TrEMBL record:
This is Regulatory protein RecX. Keywords: Cytoplasm. It comes from the Bacteria. One of its GO terms (cellular component) is cytoplasm. The keyword Cell division does not apply. Residues 57-98 form the RecX second three-helical domain. Its main location: cytoplasm. GO terms for biological process: regulation of DNA repair. Belongs to the RecX family. Modulates RecA activity.
Length: 160
């Protein structure tokens, strides 16, 4: 197969790949590596064309990723930031997208997760139970201070 044929096939496949779901530039580059006959210049040309034709848009990808992971999976900002960093996304773009999450909604999500986890654990609530709740939210990527503050507030409310 000639390189130009491979180029056209790769571009069409990558257009379809990006149309199906938002993709990062790193994901597209990884997919392009499967086409052995493409030169580095052709790979870069495909990337530039996908960007120009709006199939590939990093800001849109980041916004969709942050929204999905926070709204659906209930991930915290730390975990989202870590995963996006591992996908070679610029920290400034990540911070910008994370700042779009309203503080009230973020706090409410932490409180809801704490309540949900406490409901699955035995009472009375002791230090070991609190540690399990804190570890659960740390795994989800929430900040320790916010977890601690919200957990204490919930425990104070329950004592009243």
């Amino acid at each position: 197969m000639r390189s130009s044929e491979t180029y056209l096939i790769a571009k069409q496949k990558l257009s379809d790949y990006c149309s199906y779901q938002e993709r990062s530039k790193a994901e597209v580059l990884s997919k392009l590596q499967t086409y052995k006959n493409l030169s580095p210049a052709e790979v870069e040309q495909i990337i530039q064309e996908l960007i120009a034709e709006n199939f590939l848009n990093e800001k849109r990808y980041i916004a969709a990723f942050v929204h999905g992971k926070f709204s659906i999976k209930k991930w915290g900002k730390l975990k989202i930031h870590h995963v996006l960093t591992s996908k070679h996304i610029a920290s400034q773009l990540i911070q910008q997208a994370l700042s779009e999450i309203p503080d009230e909604v973020y706090q409410q999500t932490i409180q809801d997760l704490i309540q949900k986890k406490l409901a699955t654990l035995k009472t009375p609530i002791n230090a070991a139970i609190q540690k399990k709740v804190v570890n659960y939210l740390l795994q989800k990527g929430y900040e320790y201070e916010l977890i601690r503050e919200n957990l204490q507030a919930i425990l104070q409310q329950e004592k009243l």
